[in-house]
Amino acid sequence: MCELFHKFMMGLRDFVKDYFLGFWDYETPKVMVVKNKTLGVIYRGVQFLVITYFIWFVFISEKAYQESETRPESSVYTLMKGTAVRGDDILDTVEYVRPSEGGDVISTILRREVTYDQKQGTCAEHFMVANANCTRDSDCVQGEVDFDGHGRRTGRCVQYYNHTFKTCEIQTWCPIERYAVVREPALVEAINFTVFIRNSIHFPGFKVLRGNIKDISNPKEMRRFLNKCHYDKETNPYCPNFRLGYIAAQAREDFSDLCKTGGVIGVFINWNCNLDLDYSYCQPTYSFRRLDLRKDQASSGYYYRFAKYYSREGVESRTLIKAYGIRLDVIVHGHAGKFSPIPTIISTVTAMTSVGICTIICDWIMLTFIDKNEVYSDRKFDEVIKEPTVPELGFINSYGSNHSDLSDGVQL
After folding, report:
1. What span, in angstroms and rounded, lies between the C-alpha atoms of 179 and 161?
2. Angle, alpha carbons 87-174-155 (nearest 5°)
3. What pLDDT, on the 0 to 100 scale, is given for residue 373?
4. ∠ CA 283-284-289, rounded to 5°
5. Going by C-beta distance under 8 Å and a sequence separation of 6 or more, which residues neighbour residue 214?
6. pLDDT digit string (tens) for 68-100?
7. CB pairs under 8 A, 24+ apart, for 347-351?
């Protein structure tokens, strides 16, 4: 046992000694010309791929020579314009636009379901609510609140409005919405409504402020331009007026379907600015996409409820409105870049260093697949084993000079 331990300690000592002495060795590359066409083609091919990657993708596509800013300061103001007719009534923006003050979110009502003249009182619960159907009072628990229902149960079993069956009586706003609702036709004129979107963006790092509206110094000409123009990617990129029909079409949505269920559409404003060019080239691009999930029909679409309260004969009453519409979420992304020497130097050094990968790959191929007789490896690796006895010369266990030239004539 002691002998084994002694051998182990001696081996460990030799390993630590060799590792410590080898740690201070210096390695330097050796130039060796290998005249092998296959290896030469691989070497130049890998070099071409590396250089092409850095020139085309890193420098041209990604603009790695630029200092960039990706968190700009942005403000958005929206305004809906348009007039609709419903029967004898004329509807303006106050009737169908929420919120009225504008912002990065705006919606318009496309269809309404209205429950008129509701008052606080007691009435029959809707028959589709769980455990609402009854035959006697004992079937209804007084004070019970069903959160899928419409109110608090009184403990009585009453006739369901003008029908023969009965449901539990509840205390709530009567008549209930699911019984007395009136579904109005869709506001088809809304397809021609326009949304005014004003966006200003500021890149504080570069002190650049841009807007999405055409620069016109004359106020009258500016008003005339804004009143008549409609956005077009090719002919009118600086017009901030967008038709609802255009937005729905760009989002690949059918406007008539949106009138039925409503929907949420994202208006994406993208600022991708190369500040090495004139600032006039820093222009926004727009894209539109449906944001709510259409696969789940139970939760898809967009709707909300609100009520209009009034007093009739001293009794508080209300008109409950369930509104289906389009909600527009304006989302702004910005990226600006400008030439800077620091990222240019870093990217250039990285590119030059990456070219060294070509040598590593070709050395591995040469020593693993081509050097079957170890001719290349004998020339590739030299080891200085002692200090030179003559100042100009050194003892090297190699078959050739420090600069080797191997041709295809070497027998492998």
Report:
1. 9
2. 160
3. 53
4. 160
5. 225, 238, 239
6. 999 999 999 999 988 888 778 888 888 888 887
7. 347/54, 347/58, 347/59, 347/64, 347/65, 350/54, 351/50, 351/51, 351/54, 351/58
C-alpha closest to that of 261 among 296, 221, 286: 296
Question: Three-state DSSP class for 117?
Answer: strand
Residue pointed to by tokens 């619960």: 125
Cα gap 19→24, rounded to integer Å: 9
Torsions phi, psi for 3 (to 5 deg): -65, -40
Q: What is the amino acid identity at position 238?
A: Y
pTM for the full model? Answer: 0.75
pLDDT in tens, 327-375: 999 999 999 999 999 999 999 999 988 888 888 888 888 878 776 556 6
Scanning the structure block, which residue is given the tokens 């919606």? 107
Tokens representing 285 are 């691009």
What DSSP string describes 279-343?
Answer: GGG--EEEEEEE-S-SS-TTT-S-EEEEEEEEEETTEEEEEEEEEEEEEEEEEEEEEEEEE-HHH
Q: Which residues contact 379 (CB under 8 A, 6 or more apart)?
A: 32, 398, 399, 400, 404, 406
Whether the Cβ atoms of residue 396 and residue 389 lie closer than 8 Å to each other: no
Mean pLDDT throughout 107-119? 94
State the Cα–Cα distance between residues 234 and 101, nearest whole angstrom. Answer: 31
Beta strands 315-339 and 66-69 are antiparallel
Task: Match 């990065």 to its residue by tokens.
Answer: 104
Q: How far apart are CA 169 and CA 172, in angstroms?
A: 10
Q: Where are the alpha helices (DSSP H) in 128-217?
A: 177-180
Report the binding-site residues for ATP.
194, 322
Select from 214, 235, 233 the least CA-distant residue to 225: 214
Tokens of 65: 């020579």
Distance CA 325, CA 145 (A): 31
Q: Measured between alpha carbons, how far is 63 from 282 in angstroms, rounded to an integer?
A: 16
Q: Which residues are annotated as a binding site?
A: 194, 322
Q: How far is residue 175 from each of residues 155, 295, 319, measured CA to CA in Å?
A: 18, 33, 11
